[in-house]
Design a protein that fits this description.
The complex is a heterodimer.
Chain A: H1 16-42, H2 52-55, H3 58-83, H4 87-117, H5 126-157, H6 166-193
Chain B: H1 2-10, H2 14-35, H3 41-45, H4 49-68, H5 76-100, H6 107-114, H7 121-132, E1 148-153, E2 165-168, E3 173-179, E4 190-192, H8 197-207, E5 221-224, E6 233-239, E7 244-249, E8 260-265
Parallel strand pairs in B: 1-3, 2-8
Antiparallel strand pairs in B: 3-6, 4-5, 4-7, 7-8
Helix pairs in contact in B: 2-4
The chains are: A mainly alpha, B alpha/beta.
Chain lengths: 207, 266
């Protein structure tokens, strides 16, 4: 690359920091994969309500999914601005990404609160336990990403981001897009497919 | 601007990113419309909505990692590392679902049919005693000629019978009254040919509760009570077969391992 991306020597010929990020994301697949599988194992096993059909609001979550997709678009623009050495663009797009992420978290806070008021708790039934664990950990990832993005925006405002440090922006971007794709899976399985699950057809008979 | 040209050759342009974003939005809208009851597509789709939705989200997933995460333009090894994790995660998920749900049939039925009853230490010892000391067999009722009335009871929640042996004279009319004092468990009492209690119980599992957990027409079964609810009682009358040692067992899935005894005909 002409714009002097540092050609540091590595045994693989690949940048170590970028490799580390991809290895981390690969391992995070296992983390979320296990939580998703746990949700699927216990899907439809709750014996007391509320059940997904009672509380899942698919239209609302479709909107928050849009917001998260939009934030990924802002993220790639931040990276483009970094490559183009557009100092103002870097900060604006990074903040836009963080802002959209914060809106997503706002939706999640609203949703969690609404679910709690409907009686869904972490310890109430299997649906609550697996739902809150999975979406809660995803929300924690998003929150971490927001903190990282704001920190990068501050660096950008100080003029420390540009083509030479594009990798710094690229790494937060990889993390952010990963959080986005995890949500794509969660949204499909927990909302579009699992959001209409009802409780047991008949009350559980004596064993 | 040599570097600008090289840059655009390796990464999508602003316009391309916009197109990608629009595609992602469009797919999400399609997904929503597919399951939106007011679009009336979901009724038409039925169960086929699941693979359809999974396929659509897989396309979104692929677009994001290929373009937004530019795996399409980066050295392949980054993608290999990530896909390795993804494939492992997928296999872990399949394994978990296979272990806990089973790949076919109703989850709960599968779990119940495969459940191994919890036997605490004390019950285990007495179960061993049943096999070891046959001389200690306690006769509920002495064998007499003519009609024989036997009473057998389940013991609390321990998944055992209160006796490990009952007997009757060959050819006599035997009535076994079975009491189930348990607060939670359904039980039955099935008299079977020697050594067949587990095989009969296994086949009974397939027959299900509507058949009282006994396979209809099972030739190894000599007689059986109905499935007795907690706190209930039932009886069965039959003619004692030719002399020998038979077994009685509860064929409720899983109970046969601890809940059985000998039926001795002399």
């Amino acid at each position: 690359m002409a714009h002097a991306v540092e050609h540091e020597y590595t045994t693989t010929g690949l940048n170590h920091r970028k490799m580390l990020m991809w290895v981390f994301l690969g391992s995070d697949c296992l983390f979320f994969g296990s939580l998703i599988a746990t949700y699927m194992v216990y899907r439809g096993q709750s014996l007391v309500g509320p059940y997904p059909i009672d509380i899942i609001d698919v239209p609302l979550t479709t909107i928050s999914t849009f917001v998260l997709l939009m934030s990924s678009f802002a993220m790639v623009q931040a990276l483009s601005a970094t490559h183009a050495d557009d100092k103002k663009g870097i900060v604006n797009w990074l903040l836009a990404t963080a802002f959209l992420g914060a809106i997503f978290i706002g939706f999640q806070v609203y949703e969690f609160n609404a679910f709690k008021n409907e009686g869904l708790t972490l310890g109430g039934n299997l649906f609550g336990a697996t739902f809150f664990t999975l979406t809660g950990f995803h929300g924690a990832h998003v929150t971490l990403g927001i903190i990282w993005l704001v920190a990068m925006a501050i660096l950008g405002a100080k003029g420390r981001l540009g083509p030479k440090t594009a990798l710094d922006v690229e790494l937060v971007g990889l993390y952010w897009h990963f959080v986005d794709i995890v949500w794509i899976v969660i949204f499909t399985l927990l909302y579009l497919i699992g959001g209409f699950d009802v409780g047991p057809a008949a009350p559980p008979g004596g064993h | 601007m040599a570097h600008e040209i090289e840059h655009t050759a390796n990464h999508p342009t602003f316009k391309q990113y916009v197109v990608i974003a629009i595609i992602l939005f469009a797919i999400t809208i399609v997904e929503f419309v597919l399951i939106w009851e007011r679009a009336y597509i979901v009724d038409y789709l039925g169960a086929s909505k699941v693979p359809l939705l999974i396929a659509l989200s897989a396309v979104k997933f692929a677009i994001v990692i290929m373009y937004y995460m530019h795996l399409k333009f980066d050295p392949r090894f980054f993608g290999t590392v990530f896909i390795a994790g993804l494939v492992l995660a997928f296999l872990v998920g399949i394994a978990l679902i296979g272990l806990f749900v089973g790949f076919e049939g109703n989850q709960r039925t599968y779990a119940k049919a495969n459940a191994i009853p919890y036997v605490h230490h004390g019950a285990e010892e007495s179960a061993e005693g049943e096999h070891g000391a046959s001389s200690e067999t306690k006769h509920e009722t002495p064998a007499v000629v003519g009609p024989v009335a036997l009473v057998v009871s389940a013991v609390g929640e321990t998944l055992t019978f209160d006796t490990n042996s009952v007997s009757a004279k060959s050819g006599s009319e035997v009535t076994i009254t079975f009491d189930n004092p348990s607060a939670n468990n359904q039980h039955n009492l099935v008299v079977v040919q020697a050594g067949t209690k587990d095989a009969v119980a296994t086949d009974g599992t397939t027959a299900g509760p509507t058949n009282d957990w006994v396979s209809p027409g099972d030739e190894r079964v000599i007689a059986n009570t109905a499935l007795i609810n907690p706190g209930g009682s039932g009886d069965v009358t039959f003619t004692a077969p030719s002399p020998g040692t038979y077994q009685f067992v509860c064929t409720f899935p899983g109970h046969n391992f601890t809940m059985f005894g000998d039926f001795i005909v002399d």
